[in-house]
Amino acid sequence: MSLYCGIACRKKSFWCYRLLSTYVTKTRYLFELKEDDDACKTAQQTGAFYLFHSLAPLLQKSEQRYQAPQYSLLELERLLAKFGQDTQRIEDSVLIGCSKQHEAWFALDLGLNSSSSLNASLQKAEMEIELKGSFTDLRKALFQLNTKDASLLTTAQALLRWHDAHQFCSRSGQPTKKNVAGSKRVCPSSKIIYYPQMAPVVITLVSDGTRCLLARQSSFPKGMYSALAGFCDIGKRFRACTDAQRTQGLNNCRFLFCCCCALSLKHTVPYQVK
């Protein structure tokens, strides 16, 4: 019995170390791509690209699920050439992750005005026909994506939005320039380095033990409800933030009570009532 337990423990330790080793290796590789422009350009040659249009990801419908197609650099260059676009537009792509085999993943928005090319944004309808997909509101499609695609696309959308909104230096007023990976922007004039910012958010599930309180805003897709959530003000404690969200949520949102057993807390996304 002791021998069996010892073997089981060693096997468990082996897989734990292997998992940790894979995570560390991926983290180091991503750090290298973010800091070394030449390494990131090399990774683009064998990497995969996810496409967006005005912050909406390109998705393809498969039965009741959405899939996010990937495109190689060569396929992307052919696509841009077909629509009369400069391949320099690829410089607007951002690094969003990598596989265990170190295949780098990038995201590129073809609908936003390019900062690296004089070409205007591509027409959405023409792109959808060519790519046999549709540029879909990510919030509406989130429930029908697998975990990997949902994580990558939300990361990509946040980074693309940040770059679109921070193209100028707040001190000098001059245009900023992104590095190849898109992990930062630099002002050539003031030498200030800007990094993507993350706003702290509090989400609160109000429950009486058997039911929970869900709310919705008018901007939500039909049938979608969420636990009460909002941004944290500077200097405010989390408890004070949760109290504020409960008060504001009840005043500004439509709401309903839902049976707690119907909720899955595995992912922090709004709950959709069918």
From TrEMBL:
InterPro entries: NADH_PPase-like_N, NUDIX_hydrolase-like_dom_sf, Znr_NADH_PPase. Residues 48-162 form the NADH pyrophosphatase-like N-terminal domain. Residues 165-195 form the Zinc ribbon NADH pyrophosphatase domain. GO terms for molecular function: hydrolase activity; metal ion binding. PANTHER family: NAD(P)H PYROPHOSPHATASE NUDT13, MITOCHONDRIAL, NUCLEOSIDE DIPHOSPHATE-LINKED MOIETY X MOTIF 13. This is Nudix hydrolase 13. It comes from Canis lupus dingo. The gene is NUDT13.
